[in-house]
Amino acid sequence: MAKIKPFKGIRPPKELVEQVASRPYDVLNSEEAREEAKGNAKSLYHIIKPEIDFPPGTDEHAPEVYEKAVENFLSFQEKGWLKQDEKELYYVYAQTMNGRTQYGFVVCANVDDYLNGVIKKHELTRKDKEEDRMKHVRINNANIEPVFFAYPAQKELDEILVSVTQNQPEYDFTAPDGFGHHFWLIEDETTINRITELFASMPFLYIADGHHRTAAAALVGAEKAKQNPNHTGEEEYNYFLAVCFPDNQLQIIDYNRVVKDLNGLDEDTFLQKLSKNFIVEEKGTEIYNPEKLHNFSMYLSGKWYSLTAKPGTYNDNDPIGILDVTISSTLILDEILGIKDLRTDKRVDFVGGIRGLEELKKRVDSGEMKVAFALYPVSMKQLIDIADTGNIMPPKTTWFEPKLRSGLVIHKLI
Questions:
Q1: CA distance readout (Å), 171 to 31, 180, 246
Q2: Tens of pLDDT along the chain (414 residues)?
């Protein structure tokens, strides 16, 4: 059963939140972070991407860069740009995109729950990315950025969310990307205890986004437990920062592919090979969006195509076999284009659906890429089925939007 706890959040004063809050560390590169933080000493990028305080080209994994993160984190607290709440609280965090708002609880999730599979994952993690975030958590003794979880929607928790959000939010602002962010404190003891009880009745939580941050936070917690001869299991390092949304409020958007070449094939031969497993229809120059599961959109030489997987090329009774990312990876990228490993092959790149299919067209028209494929988005039900059956999704399957804003609240491990 899921074990969560309230915590004494470290967060910006109301009037500074827009200056402090930032996008997550992994959705932009060092140069973009440097640009976004320009002229703003209070930006969280100085803590989560501290290489921006060094000359361009500095290795973001250099020891002095991690040390700079610690120095900046301490400095933010000394200057009052980040302050710690006096009581252990839960918080509500809501995000608005395109007129639609989703509401989640900000909690501390349990390290053992991750290690024992109560917190379920659906993606593999990469050791190098894990190690980078572990260093960041370890050296700061804090989870600076939250992870993004889903939980099975539950009526009483929905009612608590409605009740809390009737009040004036602590933070309420629209970020430069147009997404709204709203944040409330839950200070009532009875409500806090009830939230803990309700989560304790849930058999599982699900990682939606942030697999590397979750792994890093849990591994650092486990490491601290080993190093402490008087470990009890109740220490703050046994918990890490998470925002938990009811599964029925979340939407996954498409995650698309662009490929550099046709593996030595001319276009006619490529289209012919596609027709073995797909019904191929030319759609002209207007952008074509996939219409349903097992229908794909392809952009090649200025034209859009509809590709519909033929019956018998997929298995709808298999939680992995039903995925369009499996069909496209197996029957197009591997079988025709010779791309065997999506995690390491440099001939393929991935484009989050938030950028729109226009971005696919742009990447191909520029000559940087030869062909693009757009996929119908995965559903939350598919994600949960995969996690529940102990399966792992192929790389780059899910894209959640909006991303959690970093810097609204931080969790210290001590």
A1: 28, 10, 21
A2: 999 999 999 999 999 999 999 999 988 999 999 999 999 999 999 999 999 999 999 999 999 999 999 999 999 999 999 999 999 999 999 999 999 999 999 999 999 999 999 999 988 887 888 899 999 999 999 999 999 999 999 999 999 999 999 999 999 999 999 999 999 999 999 999 999 999 999 999 999 999 999 999 999 999 999 999 999 999 999 999 999 999 999 989 999 999 999 999 999 999 999 999 999 999 999 999 999 999 999 999 999 999 999 999 999 889 888 899 999 999 999 999 999 988 789 999 999 888 889 999 999 999 999 999 999 999 999 999 999 999 988 878 888 889 999 999 999 999
Q: State the pTM of this model.
A: 0.89
Extract the tokens encoding 181: 């962010």
Tokens linked to 36: 């976004």
Which string of DSSP letters, residue by residue, matches 90-133? EEEEEEEETTEEEEEEEEEEEHHHHHTTSEE--S---HHHHHHH
Helix (H) or strand (E) holding 46: helix 45-48
